[in-house]
């Protein structure tokens, strides 16, 4: 039985760090494990200009503890009127991607896209400049069952979009269904996907075990076991189209434990430990390094990291909560033992 594994330092290709005092808690957690992370732009208000992205990057860098090397990779938030000109400025500022949130699909997506055709001139500029499109792939229609929204998005939105922009690199973020895994696996090299640790470890029963458990609620919502199994198969397949993106999404505990609780699971405190657990459960630890440390960088056209991290099979229990500005942050699995531990 493998008791210890050393990997090239990984990257997180989908991360929410929020802003202000929250940065002081969450940025050190990610910087302890990952060399780089794609920073989601769904602040209030969203990050829609190159100048805002640069200022946000500076605030994140200021929250990296001394002696740790961590590089935030910035994104812009796509709206119906993000001007094509902003794409060139973004490219010059080092922004790597633009995020599509269908309006109303998830946390802080009110300013999102109401009709993808309104963004076509901007997508054209992105395809030209080599800026990636990252997608929260769910339709928002109340007529479509919550559990079907990802599969319907692929058919109705993503397939036409990819036909119209065949050389735009697209990442389907946080895929949750076997339909998405199949679609990505069968697509050309311009499409990739990220997978979260929680969608590899849990099915939708986790939200309802012994009572409603808001800390397991995220979007896209956890699905049936058959989907989880398909996602684990994709993540551990060695197919470079599938790579790591935690979607660690911190919210104040009192807004998750609420009548209309916020969507988002916080996993940055133990991200690699949870991925190791999911890969180990199917005897695929040998596939973790490609998924966590190589395939994302290759897809984005960025250099692979140097340096390593080591994970040990050693039980430990993360804290019940962390300070989160004035509030409290309850991580996924708070107070529960985890089988893998990052060696320091
Ligand atoms: C994310 C958040 O809280 O910002 N929430 C989530 O449930 N995943 C937004 C997102 O990635 O959809
Ligand atoms: Zn999302
Ligand atoms: Zn997210």
Structural overview:
The chain has 344 residues and is an alpha/beta fold. The chain has one domain: Metal-dependent hydrolases (TIM Barrel), CATH 3.20.20.140. Helix content is 32%, strand content 17%. The chain has 11 helices and 13 strands. The radius of gyration is 19 Å and the shape is globular. The mean pLDDT is 97. The site of one zinc ion has 5 residues, from loops.
Number of individual domains: 1
CATH topology title: TIM Barrel
In total, the number of strands is 13
Bound small molecules, by name, code or SMILES, are: N-carbamoyl-L-aspartate, zinc ion
Helix content: 25-40%
What is the assigned CATH homologous superfamily? Answer: Metal-dependent hydrolases
CA-to-CA gap between the ends?
Answer: 22 Å
Please describe the structure with a list of short key phrases separated by commas or semicolons.
344 residues, alpha/beta, three-stranded antiparallel β-sheet, eight-stranded parallel β-sheet, 13 strands, binds N-carbamoyl-L-aspartate, 11 helices, binds zinc ion, TIM Barrel
Could you give a quick summary of the protein structure above?
By secondary structure, the protein is α/β, with parallel strands linked by helices. It is 32% helix and 17% strand.
Write the layout of secondary structure elements.
Layout lengths: L3 E5 L3 E4 L6 H10 L4 E4 L10 H13 L8 E7 L6 H9 L4 E4 L19 H10 L2 E4 L13 H16 L5 E3 L5 H9 L4 E5 L1 H5 L23 H11 L6 E3 L8 H4 L14 H11 L6 H13 L7 E9 L5 E3 L2 E3 L8 E5 L2
Parallel strand pairs: 2-3, 3-4, 4-5, 5-6, 6-7, 7-8, 8-9
Antiparallel strand pairs: 1-10, 10-13, 11-12
Helix pairs in contact: 3-4, 6-8
The structure holds N-carbamoyl-L-aspartate and zinc ion (2 copies).
One zinc ion (ZN) binds next to loops.
